[in-house]
Amino acid sequence: VELLPGRGLFDINLHLAGDLMVVEGEPANGDPAEAIAMVRAMMARLTRATTLQDFHQDAARQLRGLVGFDRVMIYRFRPDGAGEIIAESTGSGVESFLGLHYPASDIPRQARALCLLNPFRMIADVGATPVALLPPAGAAVAPLDQSLVIARSVSPVHAEYLRNMGVAASMSLSIVADGQLWGLMTCHHLSPRLPGFAQRTAAELFAAMYSMGLESRLHKTDGLDEQRAREL
């Protein structure tokens, strides 16, 4: 869509927030139709993984190849709410977080609920200066629900948390199995980074397909465990 004369094409994202339609635009970068072909090839390679750990590791490696972040991790939630990095792909010289454990308070309950509502979150530049919304809060217009807004600002506490880790940009994709938040595909970059709309579309689609594949493998593992228990 050409929003501004002479400024080229823009990719447009639309969603409803109550009675409002939220329209977000960004300069076009790549063809979203390419996402289907990219994800088809990625899933074909992923289905060849023989173990569950290989499945996770290959997913991290392929996602990093797609979006170009310095670090891509598979973050799994444990039954008590704590988290663990179970697979990772990093660039040369990038610190590894593989095997690290995090308390349940690291990702609060409210944030997890948002992860189920909106499976994609992007912070292109942790150090960016937030831009105020107009009209300001308290005006005649009700505050805007930004739960699904891609370009929304990030909590100052979370921004400081990322800066303390040396992270300048991040992207997270929810892993949902059996309707529950199983974990996250988390990407870190050491400098500001914004993948194009086509790359992000492919990443979202890949995460959804990965979640379906994971759910199938978990059910198969549960079935084998049940069978072995009956045999014993």
Describe this structure in words.
The chain has helices at residues 34-46, 52-67, 109-117, 156-164, 197-231, and strands at residues 10-17, 20-27, 71-77, 83-90, 101-102, 120-123, 169-177, 180-189. The chain has 232 residues and is α+β, with helices and mostly antiparallel strands. The strands form two sheets. A six-stranded antiparallel sheet has the order 5-4-3-8-7-6. Helix 1 (34-46) runs parallel beside helix 5 and helix 2 (52-67) runs antiparallel to helix 5 (197-231). The longest helix has 35 residues, at 197-231.
List keywords for this structure.
two-stranded antiparallel sheet, 232 residues, 5 helices, six-stranded antiparallel β-sheet, single chain, globular, alpha+beta
Radius of gyration from the CA trace? 19 Å
Counting DSSP E segments of at least 2 residues, the number of strands comes to 8
Instruction: Give the end-to-end Cα distance, rounded to a whole number of Å.
Output: 63 Å
**Sheet with the most strands, sense and barrel status:** 6 strands, antiparallel
State the helicity in percent bands: 25-40%
Order of helices and strands: EEHHEEEHEHEEH
In what range is the share of β-strand residues?
Answer: 15-25%
- What is the 3D form? globular
Q: What are the low-pLDDT stretches, counting only 5+ consecutive residues below 50?
A: none
Mean pLDDT: 88
SS content category: alpha+beta
Strand order of the largest sheet: 5-4-3-8-7-6
Determine the number of helices (DSSP H or I, runs of at least 4 residues): 5
